[in-house]
Amino acid sequence: MATIDPNARWGADGRPDYAGLPSFAALPYTESGEGLAGADVAIVGAPMDELVSDRPGTRYGPRAIRQASASTGRHLDAGIDAFESLRVVDFGDAAVIPADPVASHAAIERIVGEVVDAGAIPLVLGGDHSIAEPDIRACAQRHGPLGLIHFDAHTDTARELWGAELSHGTPMYRLVEQGHVAGERYAQIGLRGYWPGEKEFAWQRERGITELRMREVVERGIADVLTEAIDAVGPGPAFASIDIDVLDPAFAPGTGTPEPGGMTTADLLWACRELAGRLELVGADVVEVLPSASGTDVTAVVGARIAHELLTGIALRRAGRGGA
Ligand SMILES: [Mn+2]
Q: Helix axis angle, 265-278 relative to 222-233, nearest 10°?
């Protein structure tokens, strides 16, 4: 039986997963520039969902992911504890304005810019996928045009949807057209279903974008497909954008535009660690977690693990073991 120290809180083993306030992985929480100083990575929430084309609710994504994120310790396969190797803080949420997506995008761009200016890598939790526009733009304005690795059932490269140019279906078109993402250094993985159409695919080909459909993941395996994507992105600053709907809805039912026939969680988690180890990531986002459509908290748990695998990959790369 353990000896009980009446003065101890939770002692050397740390607190249990279910206790305390739910910052991401029980990390130090700060909303101040001083708290951010010296951080390698900062978690940022982008809780907005006004720009979806179907079911809303991803504004609750960041809070659900934090709630599901308590697991810490040494990664069994990678042999590294990201939270020991890196200084990671939870920098809170962007100051979004309900019903004003333009103002919310500006707030997201501002907070992500603050993280980059402090020398840290922003890891942004969405939110609908429209948040990729301000978060990638904030990174590109400081690092120059970025490479992009994008996991998604959908390309998100429409010029407009029902006439709306600001949408969760258009951020990648806008980022390429604005010059923030280099088309020839942009790879998409997991595409399937019935959208978009030939016009969008023709535009993608013109821009030199690498599209890797779900069928290729099934036939070639994730390792081969990921290597092609990483080769397309190449050296230089890069961003990783992970839409949870790249997963089969069997693994992640809590999302607004589910598309059956997707990736397995095991493949995606491995790929996130691997790409973060091999690419020069300057930022990443995990988007489209819609807790109320999930039935259980499994989608938020997976969202949290995606973020954790990205952190593990970043830690491996900093330790000179990227791609190991
Ligand atoms: Mn998307």
A: 30
Rounded to the nearest angstrom, the distance between the alpha carbon of 183 and the centre of ligand 1 is: 17
Q: How far apart are the CA of 152 and the centre of ligand 1, in A?
A: 5
pLDDT single digits (tens) 14-64: 788 888 888 999 999 999 999 999 999 999 999 999 999 999 999 999 999
pLDDT in the model for residue 102: 98
Measured between alpha carbons, how far is 121 from 141 in angstroms, rounded to an integer? 14
CA distances to 23, 25, 36, 52, 200 from 108, rounded to whole Å, are 18, 21, 16, 17, 27
Cα 170 to ligand 1 centre (Å)? 9
Dist. CA 41 → ligand 1 center (Å): 23
* pTM > 0.85: yes or no: yes
Q: Is 122 helix (H, G, I), strand (E, B) or coil?
A: strand
What is the pLDDT, as a whole number, of residue 70?
Answer: 82
User: Which fold is adopted by the domain 36-159+170-318?
Assistant: Arginase; Chain A (3.40.800)
Per-residue pLDDT reduced to its tens digit, 294-304: 899 999 999 99
Residue 156 CA to ligand 1 centre (angstroms): 6
- Per residue in 171-219, pLDDT tens? 999 999 999 999 999 999 999 999 999 999 999 999 999 999 999 999 9
Query: For residue 101, which phi and psi values (nearest 5 degrees)?
Result: -65, -30
Write a three-state SS string for 52-112: CCCCCCHHHHHHHHHHCCCCCCCCCCCCCCHHHHCCEEEEEECCCCCCCHHHHHHHHHHHH
Domain ranges of the chain: 36-159+170-318
- For ligand 1, the distance from its centroid to the CA atom of residue 3, given in whole angstroms, is 51
Report the pLDDT value the prediction gives residue 2, as an integer from 0 to 100. Answer: 59
* Confidence at residue 324, expressed as pLDDT on a 0 to 100 scale: 46
Cα 10–chain centre separation: 31
Instruction: Output the CA 168–ligand 1 centroid distance in Å.
Output: 6
Q: Is 201 exposed, middle or buried (0-12, 13-18, 19+ CB in 10 A)?
A: middle
